Amino acid sequence: MLQQFNPANKDLKVYIDGEMLHRDEAKISVFDSAVQGGDAVWEGIRVYNGRVFSLEPHLDRLFDSAHAMLFSGIPTREEVRTAIFKTLRANNMRDGVHIRLTLTRGKKITSGMDPRLNQAGCTLIVLAEHKPPVYPPSIKLATSSVRRNSPMSIDSKIHHNNLINNILAKIEANNTGAHAGLMLDKDGYVSEANGVNVFAIRRGVVYTPHADYCLPGITRATVLQICADNGIPAQEKRLSLTEFYTADEVFTTGTMGELTRVESIDARKIVNKHNTSVLDRLNGLFAELTRTQGVEF
Ligand SMILES: Cc1ncc(COP(=O)(O)O)c(C=O)c1O
What we know:
Elements: E1 13-16, E2 19-22, H1 33-37, E3 40-48, E4 51-52, H2 55-68, H3 77-90, E5 97-104, E6 123-130, E7 138-143, H4 164-176, E8 180-184, E9 190-193, E10 197-202, E11 205-208, H5 218-229, E12 234-236, H6 241-245, E13 249-254, E14 258-265, E15 268-269, H7 278-292, E16 295-296
Parallel strand pairs: 7-8, 7-14, 11-12
Antiparallel strand pairs: 1-2, 1-6, 3-4, 3-5, 4-16, 5-6, 8-9, 10-11, 10-13, 13-14, 14-15
This protein binds pyridoxal-5'-phosphate (PLP).
């Protein structure tokens, strides 16, 4: 799952604060808050078939995150939407596209932690790349020693750029040959993997941890909505590692990789004791949504 350079992205044009810049020229200031303190919020968004999928929920989360961080000089929703569409058109992108949308607290007048040093408003970056879903058909997880943040430290409801605990979990997973690190909450219950939400299917019921520690993922919410719309029982619940090890099916969700089957966790193979796959059904229903829904640009 180590991503490779895609030559189709050689001459990308990147949006930074109103300008479209070649990827080699697309730079932000050393005084920018993202550089100084990871003081930024972000979204990963996908484009299918000429439509931006789940655009409004992503914008909701971006603006909620920026509001919770008390950013000032935040661009309007219309400005962000326009910046996304402008970037997609400038790169002639229609399908198989991943957008990394970043909003930083902006440039500081001098280095320092104090947000009062930010007097120029936010920096908006739209980086769109040709990037079909990046995960293989099934992945291995390894439980990490790094715990997912609790609201006592950084609330996971803010989709911020302070990703170091997740990166440490990913390093641990890399070192064991797993594709992603499974992160527990402070009480030892499963929270999420380092960059994706997790689900377990047991006897036909779809379970996922409460979004207390994990990011409230847009794909996670989409899967729960698919279940509600199609009479598939689903529940948010505190779940232990053992309940994941012994599930019939386990999968991850995220914009980057959509729904991905988990084949093993900590060397425990996930064995389906039934001859039907709820995950296959969910995958079909999700593909139907990405084929038919989204905002045209
Ligand atoms: C820590 C973490 N969990 C889960 C997700 C998946 O969220 P979404 O479905 O909104 O892409 C992400 C994606 O950014 C993430 O960073």
